[in-house]
């Protein structure tokens, strides 16, 4: 069963590109899917996450991690281990 994620991002964001690269790498090890959401398309999302992006949210648990995060942080999110945000 696939793990569904949301990646809050914005265009021309090098940190967001790094986050997506980590997801691509981990998708070789984990069965995961993600939707990238442009925060500028929704005012409430923008206001909530503008200084935190990239933000990765696990859809089923609503757990989230904000940048800076690394591969181990994402793995913890994927296996549903509580981590510091």
Uncertain segments are none
Architecture, CATH level 2?
3-Layer(aba) Sandwich
CATH superfamily: Glutaredoxin
Structural class computed from helices and strand pairing: alpha+beta
Please state the oligomeric state of the protein chains shown: single chain
What is the count of structural domains?
Answer: 1
What is the first-to-last residue Cα distance?
Answer: 26 Å
Overall pLDDT confidence: 93
* Backbone CA Rg: 12 Å
Instruction: Look up the CATH topology.
Output: Glutaredoxin
Output the CATH class name: Alpha Beta
Task: Bin the strand percentage.
Answer: 15-25%
If helices are DSSP runs of H or I spanning 4 or more residues, what is the number of helices? 3
Strand order within the widest beta sheet: 2-1-3-4
**Main beta sheet: strand number and arrangement?**
4 strands, mixed
Q: Label the overall shape.
A: globular
Strand/helix succession: EHEHEEH
How many beta-strand segments? 4
Approximately how much helix is present in the residues?
25-40%
Task: Give a brief description.
This protein is an alpha+beta fold and about 80 residues long. The protein has helices at about 15-25, 45-50, 70-80, and strands at about 5-10, 30-40, 55-60, 65. The chain has one domain: Glutaredoxin (3-Layer(aba) Sandwich).
